[in-house]
Write the structure tokens for this entry.
Amino acid sequence: MNYDTSSTTRTSVPPDIAASTQRRVRVATGEEHPATSPLSVHDMTVAYHRKPVLWDVDFDAPAGSLIGMIGPNGAGKSTLLKAALDLMPKASGRVMIFGKPYRQQRHLVGYVPQRESVDWDFPVNALDVVCMGLYRQIGWCRLVSRRHKQRAMQALEQVGMADFAKRQISQLSGGQQQRVFLARALVQDAVLYLMDEPFAGVDASTEQAIVNILQTLRTAGKTTLVVHHDLHTVREYFDYVILLNMRIVAHGPTDEVFTPDNLRKTYGGHLTLLDQAAQAIAQQGET
Amino acid sequence: MPRFKLRFWFCLVLLLTWPDSVAFAAELASIQDTYMSLPSYDTFIRVFLLKDYNTRVVMFGTMALGLAAGVTGTMMLLRKRALMGDALSHATLPGIGLAFIFMIQFGGTGKYLPGLLLGAGLSGAIGLACIMTIRRWTRLKEDAALGIVLSVFFGLGIAILGIIQKMQTGHASGLQSFIYGKTAAMLASDAQMIALVAIITVVICGLLFKELKLLCFDQLYARSQGWPILRLDAIIMALVIVVTVIGLQAVGLILMIALLVIPPAAARFWTDGLFPMTLIAAGIGAASGFTGAALSALLPRLPAGAIIVVVASVIFALSLFFGTARGIVHRLIDHMLLSRKIAQQNLLRALYERSEKTGLQPQLGISTTSSTTSTSFKRLLATRSWSPQHLRRIIRRAVNKQLVRPNRHHYYSLTGRGLANARRVVRNHRLWELYLIHHADIAPSHVDRGADELEHIIGPSMVDELLGLLAIKHPELAMPPSPHATTRAGKPHTPPGISKHT
């Protein structure tokens, strides 16, 4: 009974069968994650309670590109970002930021959460919110210095909100609030930006301002992943697209991937087989 | 008028019997209380100038407690954990009872305060852990978890107090005071302990101010930045437990939550910044503690905790009405000023358009004696849904401001200043209408209302933007014609130089 230790700890199948399956299954060794990729997600599965919402998501984001992530409601777009940022537990799989786990690369990543995720009645002004992007650099128990405030002001200017720096955030319009959130990420001076629906519920001029900033970021060689929901503007805004509906339907350069066929696969047929399977797993777990 | 008469008699009786009832209350007080006397002027002065040692100790203690509660409460309230604080304070009761029994068993008096408070703190922490566990491991929502922990722990505590009363060792009556609070029992050492806790609270909140602000505002982002959310949350809740425990003696566990929640809630009406809010909350807490303790020294038969909370709620009510940031009065005044301004602008516009219609093109000339048509009150009344009184008031205000001049009986025209104002208002209105027609594809018959709502609030920067969009080169000279006047049914008149697509 001298089993190979690695196989006995994992399964109780006889070694010969285990070995044969191992030969067929691609094993994650980390080698397929190039250190140059700003964000590489490998075989990631995420579940809420017992119900999986993302299955085996697997992609490498090309560096320096502006990436749109598209999919219907409940496709797991926000969940993908959250899981990549360790804000949600992953059932399996892993995420690498420039070849290292997120824990070690936090300073390289700027996150823009959904606008609805916070209480905008909170007693702070726009400048305070932008300064929050610098807290990590400032460090524990230290005050926000004038130098930091100047940098925050510059970020506000970048999004065209310098005149509103001292405005309490509840007095800002939805679009202005979104710009403040964007400025908070910009002030971090990150290399990879993950934005959760920055275009949701904003006015036309804010949308244009955000698009300009996204293009500036791309020109500066930074990578941006944007959760997006307006199919009309995808071709115009993004040069790389990820189509997501619980699993990745397709990903690649916009011209190649953003096709009617792929869109039908992403949006069409709501109760897909995958959805049914997820339901079944959840029910099985409960009984 | 029976009701009025009744009230009158009631007042009269009250007035006549007032000296008697005061004397009666004083008699009661002097019988039952040994060191406090009735609230005469002298006592009043003595209490508020801190001349009495006992009162001084109590007031100092409650003030420090109010300050600590204000600072801690601000963080708790903004973290949206107010109800958790309530559950925590109720969860301290079984700890107090058990600590008492424990100390009796080991031969103590059972009344050793630090021991009781330690029990209270531990029991509160266990209550918190229960809430967390229920929320994490069951599908019950937070409110259910809070309700369960609050009632179960409080019930358990009451049961334990009942058992203690049955025990032969007796002397458990003091424990009841933890439920409603009894400031008079406060010793100098207790006050010092409260002050120490207050200092620690202020120092911790000061050092972690930035971190706690981020946590309370945007938990998700804070976590993505790698801040230890759990530990920061634990710090807030630990501060809440500690402040609650030291407040048990003075305010009691039922009312402690009021001292944590009311000061920051009141402070929010005065400011839109977190730092000022924290300072104001601390101030309100301290003031309530101070005044409440003083009043309870003056009116010794009332429980101090209740008085402190009543004082705090009076401050809250005042803040609610008169707060400078979001008080009701402030908002009402703002609203009234805006509606006055809108009414005035509507009047000016009505006068201007009337004279436009009569063919007399209003010119802004050197002569400030008006060149606009005199319009009758009746005709003005017909232009809008004004009531006669309202219109009269609007006109009176405009006349006072020298924007409108009364001519003959009930006829009015614009003054030079009024004309300048009216031109600006009408221009904004027309620009906005044109913008809506040409860029938002709204039917001409519908734009008037949309423009009406917005013309009063658009600022100069938006006017510039509109002018830019409508490609009007000389804003001073241009007065776009009304889209309604030119064509009633057909296509709207497009002024020269306005392109539909910019």
User: Anything to note?
Assistant: The domain at 335-473 of chain B is CATH 1.10.10.10 (Arc Repressor Mutant, subunit A).
